[in-house]
Amino acid sequence: MSHRRACAVLQVDRSSVRYRSLRRDDADLRETMKKVAGERRRFGSRRIHLMLERQGIRINQKKLRRLYREE
Questions:
Q1: Is the pTM of this model over 0.85?
Q2: What are the DSSP calls for 20-44, one per residue?
């Protein structure tokens, strides 16, 4: 069965079925963040953000908060 017909039967947009995320893998960033958080247990996302910047890792504050919350 073709994609077009299958999507029509299921009433789903074809663009949604073919979508591929462009987000990069953040495994190394997560590990670095866990390492800093493990050393400083009481630090929140703001202070971890400062510590990562001091190490030369530039990251958006919103992305850091999302990763921190997920971990």
A1: no
A2: ---PPP-HHHHHHHHHHHHHSTT--
Tell me the C-alpha distance between 58 and 63, whole Å. 11
CA distance 14 to 48: 41
Averaged pLDDT, 19-46: 88
Give the three-class secondary structure for 56: coil
Where do we find the tokens 């990069």?
Answer: 24
**For residues 52 and 16, what is the distance between their CA atoms, to the nearest angstrom?**
36
pLDDT tens sequence across 40-71: 888 888 899 999 999 999 999 999 999 999 88
Domain residues of the chain, as ranges? 24-71
